Amino acid sequence: MDDVELDKGGAPHQTTADGYDPLTTQQGVPVGDDQNHLKAGARGPMLVEDFHFREKIFHFDHERIPERVVHARGYGMRGYFELTDDLSNVTDAKVLTEVGTKTPAFMRLSTVAGSAGSPDLVRDVRGFAVKLYTSQGNWDLVGNNIPVFFIQDAIKFPDLIHSVKPAPDRGFPQAQSAHDNFWDFVSLTPESMHMVMWHVSDRTIPRSFRFMEGFGVHTFRLLKGDQSTFVKFHWKPKLGMQSVLWNEAVKINGADPDYHRRDIWNAIETGDYPEWELGVQLFDQEFADSFAFDVLDPTKIIPEEEVPVRIIGRLVLDENVDNFFAETEQVAFCTQNVVRGIGFTNDPLLQGRNFSYLDTQLKRLGGPNFTHIPVNAPKCPFANFQQDGHMAMCNPSGRANYEPNSWGTDEGGPRENPENGYKHHPQEVSGEAVKLRPESFADHYSQARQFYISQTEVEQGHMQDALAFELSKVERADIRERVVAHLRNIDEGLAESVADALGMDLPDAIEPLVEPDRSLDASDALSILKNGPDSFAGRTLGILVSEGVDADLVTSLQSRIKDVGGSCKVVALTVAGVRLSDDGELEADEKIEGGPSVLFDAVAVIVTSDGAEQMADVPEARDFVSDAVSHKKFIAFTDGAEKLFEAAGLDANTIKGCFAVSDAESLDAFVEQLKELRAWSRGG
Ligand code: HDE
User: Fold this and answer.
1) Strands 602-606, 540-545: pairing kind
2) Counting runs of H as helices and runs of E as strands, what totals does the chain give?
3) Do 193 and 83 lie in a common domain?
4) Is 110 in the pocket of ligand 1 (CB under 6 A)?
5) d(CA 344, ligand 1 centre) in Å
6) Which of 68, 244, 400, 491 could anchor a disulfide with 72, C-beta 3.0 to 4.6 Å?
7) Does 13 reside within a domain?
8) Are residues 78 and 203 in the same domain?
């Protein structure tokens, strides 16, 4: 038979008359009509013969995969990790020993309780998951923005999550912890009290993903040969930490439910790449034995004052995804993904997680081959004899799919490598099979108290308010009482203030398993405000403008903000913007209804007195200034703006942190002040 040249495909189909690539079916057949299905006559019934219609609707019907059972709402970005300090004295992991190497990374930041469509600024822990595609395989560090957790044993995870998720009978509240079930569970679970303190702190309402810390939470091991060193991982944001106020969070969720994802998307698009430093706390068995708490207990931290955080590298996010579903939705993190030189401890939460993450992917991604999806596949070579299953994309080639075999190095496939392969830590294991909580996990209040006393007065006030708010949504008085009874073991002042805000008498304290140690020192590293930024970099100024305002003033304010690394958004009565004093046009980024001051870190009210008078009649413009004042934002205002403030019942000239601006000098003073972000000393 003559050789026949097969058409292997790939040749471009004919383009459409107006130059577009043709729309085809999944089988590559160009579609002639994508507007109407095939009918028996123009007004007749559908004909089953329409394969294009059937394929299109079939595919649409199957677009959804199960959302993550926790951390459903998340946002992913690509980047790289660069090692700056060599840990080769304690680990064999190349990613931690080859200084200067840039390891490709994928990061997904998330909330925990809400479903995929919930708003970004709910009070919640944030997931902080990083996948590093190292030359020795994938390493996933699947952490949170809080260094401790609610529970000590993985067996309680379903209970914790059920309690915070919508109640099963009514299907709400969505993405909230301010309800009976959550506070019922945590108040019956004293080990959660340390995490509860973090939960009611400003950590759970971050201003942006870019302004929060991340933690590996558990104690892990770094391994060099048989030698083990304990390690806790920390991510420190380059821009410092910042959170919003609760009253802002509530309003932001309405004004821009995508506030966090939009923020990080925009930062990457404009080249202002988000960055974190990776830090490690390294310690040995001797330290672990002498430390006041069990290093396997995930409800405890090791204060940075006791074991300093050593910075060893940086993570830079420099690319948004091309497709949200392909990458962010399909990325599968797994605590078990470690590389040679990194190992586990017996933290009972970590042990449980090591089972859960692989298991959950089977349900979510539908089969065992999710590792073949590009976002999950290693970027180093990988080869084994695992085969088949749903959607197998890279089955082993050649005759051998087993080993040992006799097919040699050409055809016989890969083999284990005792020299360079992964080595588990040879820890000795013994003991009776018991379902027991170690006694060394029994202290539930000492570090909760330490966290509270480490906060500034402003932050302590926020915690008191948060507790009062959350508990005011709890219908059952006995649950409210039980929470306050725990607070008495943490801090009497805190308990009193919450009881007072709830209008209840102080209940007796809960009997602790072990007496809390009230002598632990405050740790400054635990406060956001003590670790705030010292510049306006990465922040946004909202400028409210009216017709005819001084062109020089606006442009010099904009350029000053740019010089300090910040950005500006112009807000006006119409989205078309305004005409400036020099007749130039200034386009608005937002119409006033779409640009409330809660979306900005600071605001400037650059209006003429006619403009202020006109805005005085616009409720959203009045809210713009009154919210900025009550949220303690620094405010610049022009001569003439007073009328708008007056309409909101305020006198800009007497409010702390309000700056009358008219010239270069006054603008400089305002921009200098912005380093501090908020006028905390403003009353009210
Ligand atoms: Fe998770 N967790 N978790 N978790 N977790 C999941 O895995 C689980 C815990 C964390 O962006 C699930 O792929 C158990 C602590 C993040 O895709 C699931 C326990 C910490 C993400 C799961 C915990 C985390 C998850 C759901 C108690 C911080 C999102 C979907 C022992 C150190 C990853 C999935 C992403 C996701 C189980 C507790 C962080 C069900 C059983 C502690 C950041 O496997």
Assistant:
1) parallel
2) 19, 18
3) yes
4) yes
5) 16
6) 68
7) yes
8) yes
Q: Report pTM.
A: 0.96
In CATH, what number is assigned to the domain containing residue 20? 4.10.91.20
User: Do 322 and 176 belong together in one domain?
Assistant: yes
Judging by beta carbons within 10 Å of its beta carbon (0-12, 13-18, 19+), is residue 89 exposed, middle or buried?
exposed
Instruction: Report the domain count for the chain.
Output: 5
Cα 535 from Cα 527, distance rounded (Å) = 18
- Do 79 and 195 lie in one domain? The reply is yes
398 band by pLDDT with thresholds 50, 70 and 90: confident
Domain identity same for 406 and 355: no
Last residue of a domain, one of 529, 557, 585: 529
Which residue(s) pair with 234 in the sheet?
215, 279
- Its domain, for residue 25, covers 1-63
Annotated active-site residue 266? The verdict is no
Instruction: Determine if ligand 1 sits within 6 Å of the CB of residue 157.
Output: yes
The predicted-structure confidence for 335-352, as pLDDT tens digits, reads as follows 999 999 999 999 999 999
For residue 625, give both structure tokens: 């200034």
Q: Which atom of ligand 1 is closest in space to residue 153's alpha carbon?
A: 31
pLDDT digit string, tens, across residues 494-546: 999 999 999 999 999 999 999 999 999 999 999 999 998 889 999 999 999 99
Nearest to 96 by CA among 213, 223, 2: 223
User: Quick one: 616 and 646 in the same domain?
Assistant: yes
Q: Is residue 642 part of a domain?
A: yes
- What is the sign of the dihedral through the CA atoms of 277, 127, 116 and 140? positive
Which of 603, 653, 597, 681 shows the shortest CA–CA distance to 251?
Answer: 597
Give φ, ψ of 301 to 5 degrees: -105, 170
- Judge if 83 and 168 occupy the same domain: yes
Asked if 550 and 577 count as a contact pair (C-beta separation under 8 A), the reply is no
Domain containing residue 645: CATH number: 3.40.50.880
CA distance 507 to 341: 51
Judge if the beta carbon of residue 161 lies within 6 A of ligand 1. Answer: no
